Amino acid sequence: MPLKEKNIILGICGGIAAYKSADLISKLTKMGANVHVVMTKSAIKFITPLTLETLSGNRVFTNLFPPPKGDPLVHVDLADKADIIVVAPATANTLGKFAHGIADNLLSTLILATQAPILICPAMNTNMWQNEIVKANVQRLKDMGFYFVEPEWGELACGVEGYGRLAEVETIVEEIKTILSSKDLAGQKVLVTAGSTQEPLDPVRFLSNPSSGKMGYAMAKVARRRGAEVTLITGPTTLTPPRGVRVLGVKTALEMKNTVLDNFEDASIIVKAAAVSDFRPQRFFNKKVKKTPGKMEIGLKRNPDILKELGKKKGNRILVGFAAETHDIIKHAQKKLKEKNVDLMVVNPIGIPGAGFGSDTNMVKILDRKGDIVELPLMTKEKVAEEIWDKVVEIIRSG
Ligand code: PMT
Question: 135 with 252, same domain?
Answer without folding.
Answer: no
